[in-house]
């Protein structure tokens, strides 16, 4: 083969393939690293475009289209791109809360460490204070812990408060990395300003929603793509934390502005958006906390609220989730859903997802981009 660049297109037409089969659509090798691209799109024609140089693959992109040509998919974009937060933008639990719990235990000299696997089991228990209490009840309370039940309750509360403080330090120091490719998919051509506790826009509106707390720094790329194209962006949160609960924390101006008196938004999510995505992006983002809807995921209320607020048809929205619960919420809202599996959700059932990836990915190893999101909206089923 000649040393010059050569482009090749591979079209695959499969009547059925799902995330459960875990079958690789393509397996190739670049610099001795194997990459597997998989999808759970049912009855979809996939067009995989690749560029090769001197026998080696240097970049790869997966796109879906209704025809054998991938060019048509580039003209269709979603009206809104809605992100879950934890596990999608950042792996908050593994890289944030778990680390903060361990730092607290070390600081208090309790002789306790929660590794990744153990913390995954503890996540089955809702709430940080409840998690610590259940763990100590099962394994034995630290020697420095008080003996009475009332004092132990206060002890747990103090540990949790310190854990939250250390967690905020991780955010402020930008030690919570965005997952690969996030930033690429959110640069907007419109301006935003705060008015009476809400965001109003000149041009295309942009929002961010979340399903719990936090982001990873690489996800900005996907976000930038969307904003650059005028696609509305949102992060949907089920956090119930009031703005006043973390008043006094060292937020940026934009984060503080989004936490105006009376706003029922998550102070932590606001800080994350500002610190990890940057204040310029944060100024274009509106956060909706979970208490603005009556029911949490898997109920679709948060995504329906997003579509109504953005004045877009739910069927034109693409959601990026990491859990089966989030997937169920997105599909119940009538939206397309891409799953980017996280460490604690990798084994969940994503049969109904429109596509499944390990992450969004950074160039040259991006798993999908904004055009791919748009292609999911087209009629793409084959006989």
UniProtKB/TrEMBL annotation:
Question: Which Pfam families does the record match to this protein?
Answer: Hydrolase
- Please list the GO terms describing molecular function: hydrolase activity
Q: What Gene3D superfamilies does this protein's entry cite?
A: HAD superfamily/HAD-like, Putative phosphatase, domain 2
* Highest taxon listed in the record's lineage: Eukaryota
In Swiss-Prot or TrEMBL terms, this protein is called Uncharacterized protein
Q: What is the lineage of its organism?
A: Eukaryota, Viridiplantae, Streptophyta, Embryophyta, Tracheophyta
